[in-house]
């Protein structure tokens, strides 16, 4: 009778143990810390989002594996330090999910719709913050989030306690105000003040997106992809004449850009 192969997750964890072995492991993996691995964890999360955006599900499978490896990596380092292990990580999220879904796992009656369930979720999270002595409304909004996403989350959290404009009209008025202030600082020529005003402008745009029910990070990711796609069209059109963008000019490239927009509309 042959031994059954290990379950995939057990195999992955065993691989991580070998990679981190101080004698026989991989020198690069051995020298890593939570801080040095954190940027890779963020990068893998972005690559998951990118695969979803492109609808590439073969790639998504691969990228989810890379992201899972990041979790296993952090958990292994924590286990080596006597902090916690992978099972504790899995147990913690299982406990949290059950706690935050009393209408599914507890005695609380199911809510009528997704919106009311989401509101209940936020109430439970608020109670958890209180239990952890995080009494400020914004205390647990992660600093490590992309700045645009964090801006939207900060305004969303503040809006829950009434600190919000009644409608998008007031946000547009604030947007006009910030644009005017930026123009003043551009005229004054102060780099630091310009930076400050650009930040304020982006923050208001993130707030506007949140008011419209749009994730600003997703919206900007889509615009980035659109820019790359349309600029590639410009390059391809110029290449037909054996030229590159630096051999063109703004007027021609702008016309080709508009051609790319027309082509996208079909």
TrEMBL record:
<dbReference type="InterPro" id="IPR004518">
    <property type="entry name" value="MazG-like_dom"/>
</dbReference>
<dbReference type="GO" id="GO:0006203">
    <property type="term" value="P:dGTP catabolic process"/>
</dbReference>
<dbReference type="GO" id="GO:0046076">
    <property type="term" value="P:dTTP catabolic process"/>
</dbReference>
<dbReference type="Pfam" id="PF03819">
    <property type="entry name" value="MazG"/>
</dbReference>
<dbReference type="GO" id="GO:0046061">
    <property type="term" value="P:dATP catabolic process"/>
</dbReference>
<feature type="domain" description="NTP pyrophosphohydrolase MazG-like">
    <location>
        <begin position="172"/>
        <end position="230"/>
    </location>
</feature>
<dbReference type="GO" id="GO:0047693">
    <property type="term" value="F:ATP diphosphatase activity"/>
</dbReference>
<dbReference type="InterPro" id="IPR011551">
    <property type="entry name" value="NTP_PyrPHydrolase_MazG"/>
</dbReference>
<comment type="similarity">
    <text>Belongs to the nucleoside triphosphate pyrophosphohydrolase family.</text>
</comment>
<protein>
    <recommendedName>
        <fullName>Nucleoside triphosphate pyrophosphohydrolase</fullName>
        <ecNumber>3.6.1.8</ecNumber>
    </recommendedName>
</protein>
<dbReference type="InterPro" id="IPR048011">
    <property type="entry name" value="NTP-PPase_MazG-like_C"/>
</dbReference>
<dbReference type="GO" id="GO:0006950">
    <property type="term" value="P:response to stress"/>
</dbReference>
<dbReference type="GO" id="GO:0046052">
    <property type="term" value="P:UTP catabolic process"/>
</dbReference>
<dbReference type="GO" id="GO:0046047">
    <property type="term" value="P:TTP catabolic process"/>
</dbReference>
<dbReference type="GO" id="GO:0046081">
    <property type="term" value="P:dUTP catabolic process"/>
</dbReference>
<feature type="domain" description="NTP pyrophosphohydrolase MazG-like">
    <location>
        <begin position="32"/>
        <end position="105"/>
    </location>
</feature>
<dbReference type="InterPro" id="IPR048015">
    <property type="entry name" value="NTP-PPase_MazG-like_N"/>
</dbReference>
């Amino acid at each position: 009778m042959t031994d059954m192969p290990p379950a995939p997750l057990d195999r992955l964890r065993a691989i991580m143990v070998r990679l981190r072995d101080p004698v026989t492991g991989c020198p690069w993996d051995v020298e890593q810390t939570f801080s040095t691995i954190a940027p890779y964890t963020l990068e893998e999360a972005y690559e998951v989002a990118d695969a979803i955006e492109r609808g590439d599900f073969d790639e998504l499978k691969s990228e989810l594996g890379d992201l899972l490896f990041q979790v296993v990596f952090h958990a292994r380092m924590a286990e080596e330090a006597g902090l916690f292990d992978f099972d504790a990580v899995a147990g913690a999220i299982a406990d949290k999910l059950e706690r935050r879904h009393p209408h599914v796992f507890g005695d609380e009656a199911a809510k009528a719709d997704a919106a009311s369930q989401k509101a209940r979720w936020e109430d439970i999270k608020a109670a958890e913050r209180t239990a952890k002595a995080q009494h400020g409304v914004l205390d647990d909004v992660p600093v490590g989030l992309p700045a645009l996403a964090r801006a939207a989350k900060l305004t969303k959290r503040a809006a829950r306690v009434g600190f919000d404009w009644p409608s998008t009209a007031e946000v547009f008025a604030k947007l006009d105000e910030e644009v005017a202030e930026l123009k003043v600082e551009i005229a004054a020529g102060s780099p630091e003040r310009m930076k400050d005003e650009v930040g304020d402008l982006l923050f208001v745009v993130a707030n506007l997106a949140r008011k419209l029910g749009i994730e600003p990070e997703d919206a900007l990711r889509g615009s980035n992809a659109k820019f790359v796609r349309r600029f590639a069209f410009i390059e391809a059109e110029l290449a037909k004449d054996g030229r590159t963008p630096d051999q063109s000019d703004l007027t021609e490239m702008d016309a080709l850009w508009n051609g790319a927009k027309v082509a996208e509309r079909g």
